[in-house]
Amino acid sequence: MNVASSLFAQILFVVFALLTVVSAAVVVFSPRIIHSAFGLLFTFCGVAALYVFLYADFLAVTQLLIYVGGILILIIFGLLLTQRVMDSKYFEQSHQRIAAGVLGVVLAGVLFGVVLATPWTQAPRPDTPTTEIIGVSLLTQYLIPFEMASMLLLVALIGAVWLARTKRGHHE
Amino acid sequence: MTIQLSHYLLLSAVLFSIGVAGVLTRKNLIVIFMALELMMNAVNLSFVALARYMGDSAGQVIVFFVICVAAAEVAVGLAILIALWRHKGSMHTDALAVMKW
């Protein structure tokens, strides 16, 4: 029996989808920045769970390692270095709520229309792990983009250190 | 009713719209940053869903590259934010009005 068609899997899918959307809403609409950061944690974990549903095992682990373990930690560090997160009276107001809300709803409506109107030809992949496929294609078909990505990461590393350091002679 | 491709794509559309609303409404640069990450995750999710239901693993490789670029973007972006904080003492988009005519 296909795993994705069992009732238990469907309930789990709904739970993870709700977790993702609700915590994404918390990220965007919460007035406390630290709540936004923790909402982002649950969104990333929910998306990783959805990757598991899609048999993208390698990407699910990568999502947890890089987004939760790297990007989110960096964001929280930046937040703690700069914001008054511990100040309980400190709130961030949102602006232009109506215009942005209308635009967001219109955008969602257009995307919904496109998704529902397109006749998707479905030819599901066999339920196999994809780590080997990704590894082989990274080192054959996508070798040059792969090397470019490593160069990009090196450049970003050096650039970030250069940007964030204190300039000599400017110590307080 | 089984879980189909369109469910993942609709979920991704909702996530993307929430991210857009966040970028438009918030004035704190770190929260705008988080909303950008939301949008990137939404696009990644639709890539992976299409890779699964169209029987082609190229989508997963692309998501791998997107995650790479996201990591680089976050490192440089946060460095810029910290430099801005040191310079202006503020992290609001209003503090970045130097080039406004």
Write up this protein.
The complex is a heterodimer of chains A (172) and B (101). Chain A is 71% helix and 0% strand. With 172 residues, chain A is mainly α. In chain A, α1 (7-29) packs antiparallel against α2 (33-53). The longest helix of chain A is centred in the middle third of the chain and has 26 residues, at 57-82. Chain A is globular and about 55 Å long. In chain B, α1 runs antiparallel to α2 (29-53) and α2 packs antiparallel against α3. Chain B has three helices and no strands. Chain B has a single domain (8-90), classed as Helix Hairpins, CATH 1.10.287.3510. With 101 residues, chain B is mainly α. Classes of the chains: A mainly alpha (172), B mainly alpha (101).
Provide a concise account of the structure shown.
Chain A has 172 residues and is mainly alpha-helical. Chain A has 6 helices and no strands.
Using brief descriptors, characterize the structure shown:
heterodimer; A: 172 residues; mainly alpha; Four Helix Bundle (Hemerythrin (Met), subunit A); globular; B: 101 residues; Helix Hairpins
Radius of gyration of chain A (Å) = 21 Å
Please name the two chains that share the biggest interface, counting residues whose Cβ lies under 8 Å from a Cβ on the partner chain: A-B, 87 and 70 residues
Number of helical segments with 4 or more residues of chain A: 6
The rounded distance between the terminal residues' Cα atoms of chain B is 56 Å
The profile of the biggest β sheet of chain B is: none
- Secondary structure class of chain A reads mainly alpha
- How many structural units, i.e. domains of chain B? 1
From the alpha carbons, calculate the radius of gyration of chain B and give it in angstroms.
17 Å
State the helicity of chain B in percent bands.
Answer: over 70%
**CATH structural architecture of chain A:** Up-down Bundle
State the low-pLDDT regions of chain B, or none.
none
| Secondary structure tally, helices of chain B | 3
User: What is the fourth-level CATH superfamily of chain A?
Assistant: NADH-ubiquinone/plastoquinone oxidoreductase chain 6, subunit NuoJ
The outline of chain B comes out as elongated
- In CATH terms, what is the fold-level topology of chain A? Four Helix Bundle (Hemerythrin (Met), subunit A)
Form type of chain A: globular
Pattern of helices and strands of chain B: HHH
